From TrEMBL:
<protein>
    <submittedName>
        <fullName>N-acetylglucosamine/diacetylchitobiose ABC transporter substrate-binding protein</fullName>
    </submittedName>
</protein>
<feature type="signal peptide">
    <location>
        <begin position="1"/>
        <end position="29"/>
    </location>
</feature>
<comment type="similarity">
    <text>Belongs to the bacterial solute-binding protein 1 family.</text>
</comment>
<dbReference type="Pfam" id="PF01547">
    <property type="entry name" value="SBP_bac_1"/>
</dbReference>
<dbReference type="InterPro" id="IPR022386">
    <property type="entry name" value="Chitin_NgcE"/>
</dbReference>
<dbReference type="InterPro" id="IPR006059">
    <property type="entry name" value="SBP"/>
</dbReference>
<dbReference type="InterPro" id="IPR050490">
    <property type="entry name" value="Bact_solute-bd_prot1"/>
</dbReference>
<dbReference type="InterPro" id="IPR006311">
    <property type="entry name" value="TAT_signal"/>
</dbReference>
<keyword id="KW-0732">Signal</keyword>
<keyword id="KW-0813">Transport</keyword>
Amino acid sequence: MNDRPSPLQPTRRSVLALLALSPVAGALAGCATGGTRQSAAPAATPTGAAAAGNPFGVAQGAPIEVVVFDGGYGQTYIKLPVELYQGKHPKAKITQTATQQIQQSLQPRFVAGNPPDVVNNSGSNAIDYGALVKDEALLPLLPLLDAPSWSDPAAKVRDTLRPGVVEVGTHGGQFTVLNYSYGAYGAWYSSALFKEKEWTYPQTWDEYLTLCDKMATAGIAPWTYPGQFPYYMFWWLASMIYKVAGKEVIDKINNLEKDAWTDERAVAALKAFEAIPANGWVLKGSSGLNHTDAQMQFLLGKAGFVPGGSWLEKEMGDSVPAGFDMSICRVPSITANDDRPFGALCAKAGEPYIVPRSAKNTAGGLEFLRAMLSDESAANFIAQAGTLSSNRRAKLPKDAKHGLVSIDAALAEAGDNVFGVTLDTRDSRLWGDIAKVMGRFMNGDVKADQLAKEAQRLTDAARG
């Protein structure tokens, strides 16, 4: 899955270094489609005339090949869009396969100019997006956005998408990547515990600190976190910065700009959270925990809050106690001049799909993505994967778990007050380096102003 960054996620530099060791290194020459290729031109795609129900003019009988990443979401969810596509194009031969080795199996095909028509370019072995963009190897997906949606021709596809889907899929100034899943990030609490203790989730930071004091008095550490992977704190701290400062400062952080972390509004948000470690409200030993250990402490009632994303509930599986009622946290109002209202949320689309520019059936590729974004396919994905889809209209299954229901409700409340952290994909090394400082911040070894200065120093160094 692409939703959760890994501390081992390769940078473009590391991917290209690996390519230099591969058998096709001479052909690749540090790029995705081969150093001897000219700038990629649109393929001679088998298309017919566009018509109602066939907006891209997919030719009757044109075969289509789809390759899916065989990751945490599995492959079952892709069967329904295959069936929907086949229903509208019954003469088409559809070949659908799965692999965990996207780069190793498909890079040579990009070089040869015969890639699949749709690729789920995900996982730690994904083809580097920087190289794909540089080589103009990706088909722009603007026609997809402007096409009528599969389930409601009166609405365009773009009108069915959740906030930020187009933004996070835009590379080199063009929308070229459709991220199919949609996750929320931040921190979690137990609604059942709050009900038992007669606690109300706070809407202001002062009330939040009062609640943390009540937790500590009750023998519950307000916070735990995976000290082995401190990047988990990134989403919650960034959410606080977004709450106070808005999109302007988050964009500066994502774009490695000057004075991003040291903006006084960002520092104010970090100083607010500083009270948590300063008061000893972080579970002892958290610095040595991995992600599942920290989450287990939370499930055992040892801590009131734990950082994480949409995957947490499914990841912990049967370890989640019955009736625990896991719920996503929303950032309380921190200052009187906050840029965003209560309910602002960190959320981002993930699980990227692309249509290679040199594919034989790019019209079919666009059509397949349109089928994937149908209300039916998106609802099926939610049921199969246990996470939301980029289609905002997709319904949750009746047996959806409490955490997923809480995310859906929180996103509905947040509306357009949603942002995404993209630094992890822009510069994973910088992401990890700043996260290490956040770990020291959680341990009380670094204060808020020191965290801001060090994060900015690292950012400036990475920018060069």
